[in-house]
Amino acid sequence: MIRDLCDGRLEGAEIGSTEITFTPEKIKGGIHTADTKTAGSVCLLMQVSMPCVLFAASPSELHLRGGTNAEMAPQIDYTVMVFKPIVEKFGFRFNCDIKTRGYYPKGGGEVIVRMSPVKQLNPINLIDRGCVTKIYGRAFVAGVLPFKVAKDMAAAAVRCIRKEIRDLYVNIQPVQEPKDQAFGNGNGIIIIAETSTGCLFAGSSLGKRGVNADKVGIEAAEMLLANLRHGGTVDEYLQDQLIVFMALANGVSRIKTGPVTLHTQTAIHFAEQIAKAKFIVRKSEDEEDASKDTYIIECQGIGMTNPNL
């Protein structure tokens, strides 16, 4: 997909290959289509293409096909509800239109992402977590799965959160995906916590054959609660998704996180190698973080400038 976005040359990009050679050329806007032909994640296609098209010559429209709610990748709901509002703090906007949802193993989902290029990205400073003001989410079923499954996931998640957070109304909507907007069968849940300073955290889980609905709901709730305990301003899945943008931004960015994930360490390694950005990861010195595993990731961005604008 990236090769096509920039008329580049790519060698060795086949199954079983241990090495690729990629020579990018000029990034161009316009309409681009990428199809995993499986339940491969459209969100991962979006993740890899977004930093590129921000520095294109003209607006882009990305038609991405595959899984929208698949394992080992962000669910499209996470991308829209958590990633989007935070990443837009770097000073750009994008639109994500979910045409069809697709699930494991068939895929068949499609989203259309539209965005305009920018001259430069602004740095971000996400240090103050504030306090949790809202908890909401959606529990979905698609295809042949009964609606009761969605209601059971939602109810189990609410019960689990109540044990720890008693003073907030938890609003998780059970949803039956419309037949014409979902391909195949699937179920899952995403729960989001919002804070007084605009931080967003999520917990999510997908149903699998033979796993009861309560267990799926509880897994998502426990993930959210764990992400609220560490005192960071981003959850464990947002950390690594912000690294590339921090590296390209014009100035110093800071985010406060829980334990730094291997994904984040890898992203920092490559951002330093390839973009020559400088990162410092240190333990947070705030009093309220003393007992917690909380870190500050600081980056001196390279101030990438779009040559086309």
Average pLDDT = 97
What CATH calls the topology of the largest domain is UDP-n-acetylglucosamine1-carboxyvinyl-transferase, Chain
Oligomer: single chain
* Name of the level-1 CATH class of the largest domain: Alpha Beta
| Uncertain ranges | none
Largest sheet, in brief, is: 5 strands, mixed
Instruction: Identify the CATH homologous superfamily of the largest domain.
Output: RNA 3'-terminal phosphate cyclase domain
Estimated share of beta-strand residues: 25-35%
Count of domains: 3
Report helical residue fraction: 25-40%
In DSSP terms (H or I, runs of 4 or more residues), the helix count works out at: 7
Query: Strand order within the widest sheet?
Result: 3-4-6-5-10
CATH-defined architecture of the largest domain: Alpha-beta prism
Describe this structure in words.
The protein is α/β, with parallel strands linked by helices and 309 residues long. The protein folds into 3 domains: 1-115, UDP-n-acetylglucosamine1-carboxyvinyl-transferase, Chain (Alpha-beta prism); 132-230, Dihydrodipicolinate Reductase, domain 2 (2-Layer Sandwich), CATH 3.30.360; 234-302. The chain has helices at residues 2-5, 42-53, 76-87, 147-164, 213-229, 239-248, 262-275; strands spanning 9-11, 21-23, 30-35, 60-66, 94-102, 109-115, 125-126, 132-142, 170-176, 182-183, 186-195, 200-206, 252-257, 278-283, 295-300. Helix 4 packs parallel to helix 5 (213-229) and helix 6 packs parallel to helix 7. 43% of the residues are buried. The active site is at 263 (tele-amp-histidine intermediate).
